[in-house]
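Here is one chain, start to finish.
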Amino acid sequence: MEDVQPMNDDEHTPMVAGENAVARLFEAADYEVSQAVGLEPGSVDWFATPRKGPVRPRTYFRVWTRCPEDVDVALAELDDKRRATAADRALGVVMEGSLPPGYTADLRADPCAVLTYRRLVLEVSGIAGSVGEHVRAYGMNGEPARYLPRRIDDRERAHSDAVGWIKEWVRSRPTSPIILLSRHAADRSAVVEQVIYEIGVRFLHEPDDTVLLSRKAPVGAASLAYAHGFAVLVHEDIRHLHKHQPSLACLDRSAVKDYEKSVRDYLPGEYVTLSTPLSVDVERWFEERLGSPALNARFLSAREREPEFKRLTDASANVQRMLDSVLDSRGVPSSGIAQWVAYVVHDYISTILREALRDETASLAQLVLLEEAALTQFSLEWIFIEPGRQLVSHPAWGPLREQIFTWYEEGSHGRFQMNTLIRDYFIARRLAREILAGNVGSLSRHQFPREYVFLFLSILSPEAAARFAEGRGAEVRAEIEAEVERRLQLTLAHQLKRSVGAILMNVQNIRENLGALDVAKFKYEFRRIDEEIAFQSALAEQTGRWQEVPNDAPEGLALHDIVIDVVAPLRQRWPDAGCEIAISAALRVRANRAGLREILHCLLENAFHAVASSPAPRLWIRAILEGDTVRLEIVDNGPGIRAEDRERIFEPYVTTKKGGDQPLGTGLGLAIARRYAAQLGAYVGLDPEREGTCFFARFVTWRDAS
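Its structure:
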């Protein structure tokens, strides 16, 4: 029998074919298709058997151009054929038209069935099965009732129901792709999950007249389903789009922009934009599910009073968890909207943390990172993140990443800003832990927390809240002093840089306007000016660094490698100084890389300076393990430190090294080393009992999680 060529009517009727078309379908689905001489003279019987699997039922099939007038008679004939050919089941495939009203083929229960070619393609390709599984799982979890409607804009007008718009597009037998753009993956995913479910429910009742929407990869028989228009593919790889193939591409707006830049020619298909739900949609959704006018009124008041709470609840990725938290708040006393908001946000964040972070060691590291980010924003307004580095990096965040992303607002040049309620929650977490550990003073450099920090603190730890309230007076004084010092240092650094720049420019002009002989006459004076400028420039740089204490999250760092790295340029500056290093490669300390490098640079540069005028300059660097700490010692054979200067040298701008009548240092190196060490939980000091001059730094040993 020759293949029947595709025949399309005005309604894009699927392709009509005969036995060869059905055979190709089975072969594409990895069935072995065979033929045998039939019982009737001149007839041929067709069979299809799966090539793989522990159970491989043999199917007899025959093809009709249109449905037989009497389906019951046709089924009886099929059953006779099944028995006569020893087949496990028998199928009659109708290539054109539909089946009689009221008849539905049950392919799982009935050994014989009559079905349309469309239905056979969807079943054999696995598309019907995957959609059916989605319908069962999605409905069993109650997701349809939770769906929050989204709006869609097809460039002609806005539509309030994105799911309805996509269903209508699928039902219209599309011939080209649609590119669905949105800012958030959660919105795209929610709409697609809902529309696959609703079309799938219709398919269960009207299998012979429903075009399915499916994520099943276009491989084998599934490719035939998509090519015939029996199903529409949902995918996220824009490179696979073809302008004549119906599909629904769900893409991020930025991805499309990047792709447009690379191809520049065209992107096939029509673009439609999916918007985040409007506030009115969100409020209507909550009202329908809260079931209490009083609770809904409190929810609306909170959204009106707190813009950041409104932003969190407007985010479609959050609505279900926020709904659960609002429902859980029914027992909270009505002592004020702020306290109620704090309770709801605390419950919401706690749920996410509980679901995502189950490994206690990894969880603490991730939470510390969030707490540090919150404290940074509290002081500097923005969080600065290096390119390629993620603020939320723990693998467990994966399924909850969309919710976590609603906690931040991305700015320019690597800047991020936390939702202030999220920020205050993590500041409260840090406060609670520090207060209970007796470290209240360590947070005195931060501003006095606003209302929600204390509310969150009282929920997280009433005991810590009580202690915090008692000792807050001393912290306020410390904050004022720290802020005054910070402003003075930054002002001084700015003034120094401005003066150095002006002097450099004028000295250069003088040199250029003097002749070579005149410049030689003032060689000594120019050298002294250059030395002074170098000193002032170094002082400006060190003064700025005095305030720029690195606050990256601590990690386990190999002390030996960093010492070698820091010593290398210093050896080049002082090539006559001998330097012996005795540090085990196995020793690791708890620090951040920038802070540790600065501490080592300050201590080592100080030692090289000290031995510069010695007849046989030598340094010894070693590290030893002392319990849970590592002690790094830097010993030099320089002139030493007088007893009366042993503590003064750690004060800013104090130096005892002289070169003639000029100081050799800025007086900030040792002060910076001690300041940075304090930030890392380390300590820098001078050991007067050791022979030679011995500066040391004591660090916490890094212990890997067991």
